[in-house]
Structures are given as structure tokens and as C-alpha cells.
Design goal:
Layout (H helix, E strand, L loop, with lengths): L1 E10 L8 E11 L4 E5 L6 H8 L7 E6 L2 E2 L4 H7 E4 L11 H11 L4 H13 L16 H14 L4 E5 L7 H18 L2 E5 L3 H4 L4 E6 L2 E6 L1 H8 L3 E6 L2 H12 L4 E3 L2 E4 L7 H12 L3 E7 L3 H9 L21 E2 L4
Parallel strand pairs: 3-8, 3-9, 6-7, 7-8
Antiparallel strand pairs: 1-2, 1-4, 4-5, 9-10, 11-13, 11-14, 12-13, 12-15
Adenosine-5'-triphosphate (ATP) binds next to strand 2 and helix 1.
Length: about 325
């Protein structure tokens, strides 16, 4: 279990820059053996929280306990039970898979038969079983990420932290990595906290935590989060969203959010959906490039809660390719 209580982090200022509070009184719990995805727009404080959780930074106030051990007073024990996969590669690409794992093992004093047993076990979860002698530079990006995971598994962590581990991977490699991670997490009962901007990844999580401006603004199951957006969402693509938004809001008598060239109405009253679509088309057909009614995805939840599209938030999404310069206007708070 990861238990975060009233955490606060202030970056001290300098002559040129004022002090900045990156985390404001954040409390949350990741349950024992559960898989939590942490997300949020750029600058929301995810990296700061991640650095505190893996012991690279000390909080200005508050407390973190990992499996009951206080990070401030029992850091060595926390390090013993925790594994971390950082976003930047931590493998030597000129060495083989086996050599990388053995090198990591030597840092923990694991050698001989124990090393062989643990290496076989760690690799058994991955797709690397036949690649032990291959240099990491010859592996695909997805398999190279699995080497990082295998390194972590070697020490049999009870708690695993991963910082956007699938960044830069194609969808198939991302899927393989997550399948491996989810399998070992479930079967070992590991507690996993993983930062991610790819909302397809969050669908399978036990919980999704969303930060904004240093605060935790939501932490719930994927189903619980989707319920906040309502059963259905209206999404309209248009060339001039700024001009159409107030006119559409007036036509429909509903709050209309704008995200770049997209207009959205969340939480459509179910019985009224056909009438709403008809009204929008009758009044604004010439300005509407496409209109769709859909069940909310977690990406829709992110937009609803943070007021930003994932691309605007500095992220890649499964939907992909959204306008990074999108501006929020009139979106629900
Ligand atoms: N070393 C630092 N000194 C001063 N301010 C910092 C420092 N690192 C981060 N910040 C500020 O703290 C806030 C949170 O930043 P942080 O990097 O934790 O957010 P993030 O959610 O991880 O963003 P991103 O997705 O862009 O990595 C931001 O306002 C950022 O500018």
C-alpha cells in the first residue's frame, strides 16, 4: 500500500524566480495489490510526486508510507521493497539482456544459483525468454522496456513505480508491455503506481488519479470516473469553434465546452439526445463538419475534469493527433 498524507512540495525561489508550490496538501492511497494510473496536464506535479515517492526528493511537508514504512524514517526498508522504472532508459544497450540483468543483480548482491533462479523467474513474465544473449540495441523498443521491467522484478518488489514507461512505443509494443506488467502485478499481488497520458492504458487500471495544479482532483475507478461525464457526450467538429460555441449553447440551452476546434456537451439527458442532435443540425448544419454522440472514454473524463485535451496537456493519446494549441473556453469546471 502507498499512503500519502497531506503532502506538500515547494521549490525554493531564487533571485530570478519566485518559490513555486508544486504539490499542495495532497492525500491519496493506492491499495495493497492494486494498479493505479496517475495522470494530469503538464506542470500538474506528477514528476514531483513521482520523485518524492521514489525517494529522489524530500517533501516540504506531509508523509508517505509504503507498506507501512515511513519514507522519511525508514527509507532503506522502502528501497528494499520498491522497484522503479524511469522514463529514460536505464539499460546499457551495448550489453546483452542477461548482462544487463546480472549487472543490476550485482548491485543488490544477488549472485550464483540465486541469480540464475531469479533471472529465470523475472524473464518468465516477459517476452524475453529466448533473447537472453541478444544485445539490447538489437531489440525493439517494446522489448527493451521489458528488460527494464525484468531488472526490477529481479528484486521481487512489493511496490512498483513506473514513470510513463510506454512513451514512444507503438500501440502493439505498448499493449505487450502492459499485458506483461498487468499479469505479473496481478499474480504477484504487487502494488503498482504508473504515470501515463495514454488513456487506453487507464481503462484496465483499478484506479485512476488525476492531478491539476499540484492538487489531486479525482481518484476513482475507471467506471466511477466515466460516470462523472454522464452516459453520453456530444462532440462537434467545426472550423470556427470560437464563433459557434455561444450560438450552439443558445440553441441547445446547455453548457458547451470548447477544446480547440472541437465543441462538447457532456452529460446529455438520455431521452433528449435525438432532439439535441436534430436541433444542432437544423440551426448550424453549415458550420458543423462532424457530429457524434458517444459514450465517454477516459480521455473524455480527462477533458471534463482538467479542461484540457490530452495533447494540449503535453500527452499522446490513443485518439492521437489533437491540436496542441487548443484552448479551453467555456468548458465545465
Ligand atoms: N526544479 C524545479 N524548480 C522550480 N519549479 C519546478 C521545478 N520542477 C518543477 N517545477 C514546477 O513545479 C510544477 C510541477 O512540475 P512537475 O514537473 O512536477 O509537473 P508534471 O505534471 O510532471 O509536468 P510534465 O508532465 O510536464 O512533466 C510546475 O509548475 C513546474 O514548473
Amino acid at each position: 500500500m502507498i499512503d500519502i498524507e497531506h503532502l506538500k512540495h515547494i521549490y525554493p525561489g531564487s533571485r530570478r524566480q519566485p518559490a513555486r508550490t508544486a504539490i499542495h496538501d495532497l492525500s491519496m492511497t493506492v491499495g495493497d495489490g492494486s494498479f493505479c494510473i496517475l495522470s494530469g496536464p503538464n506542470g500538474s506535479g506528477k514528476s514531483t510526486l513521482f520523485r518524492i515517492l521514489c525517494g529522489l526528493a524530500a517533501p516540504s511537508a506531509g508523509r508517505v508510507r509504503v507498506a507501512g514504512h515511513d519514507m522519511a524514517t525508514d527509507a532503506a526498508e522502502v528501497r528494499r521493497i520498491m522497484g522503479v522504472v524511469f522514463q529514460s532508459p536505464a539499460v546499457d544497450k551495448h550489453l546483452s539482456v542477461g548482462e544487463n540483468i546480472a549487472l543490476h543483480a550485482s548491485l543488490y548482491g544477488i549472485r550464483g544459483t540465486e541469480l540464475q533462479e531469479r533471472m529465470a523467474d523475472a524473464l518468465s513474465w516477459t517476452d524475453l525468454k529466448d533473447r537472453l544473449g541478444d544485445r539490447v540495441e538489437t531489440l525493439s523498443g517494446g522489448l527493451a522496456r521489458q528488460v527494464e521491467l525484468a531488472k526490477c522484478l529481479l528484486t521481487r518488489p512489493r511496490v512498483l513505480l513506473l514513470d510513463e514507461p510506454t512513451t514512444g512505443l507503438d500501440p502493439a509494443s505498448r499493449w505487450s508491455f502492459l499485458t506483461v506488467l498487468r499479469r505479473v502485478q496481478r499474480e504477484r499481488g504487487m502494488t503498482v503506481l504508473m504515470t501515463s497520458h495514454v488513456f487506453g492504458e487507464a481503462e484496465d487500471a483499478d484506479s485512476v488519479a488525476i492531478m491539476r495544479d499540484g492538487r489531486l482532483i479525482a481518484h476513482d475507478t475507471p467506471a466511477g470516473l466515466r460516470a462523472r461525464v454522464g452516459q453520453e457526450v456530444l462532440v462537434i467538429q467545426t472550423r470556427d469553434a470560437e464563433a459557434l460555441r455561444p450560438r450552439l449553447a443558445e440553441t441547445l440551452g446547455l453548457a458547451v465546452g470548447r477544446y480547440g476546434d472541437e465543441l462538447r456537451v457532456d452529460d446529455l439527458p438520455p431521452a433528449e439526445v435525438p432532439r439535441i442532435v436534430e436541433k444542432a443540425l437544423n440551426a448550424h448544419r453549415a458550420d458543423i463538419q462532424s457530429i457524434a454522440v458517444k459514450q465517454p472514454t477516459l480521455e473524455d473524463v480527462f477533458i471534463h475534469i482538467t479542461g484540457k485535451r490530452p495533447a494540449e496537456a503535453g500527452a499522446a493519446s490513443d485518439a492521437g493527433g489533437a491540436d496542441a494549441k487548443a484552448r479551453r473556453e467555456g468548458a465545465p469546471a
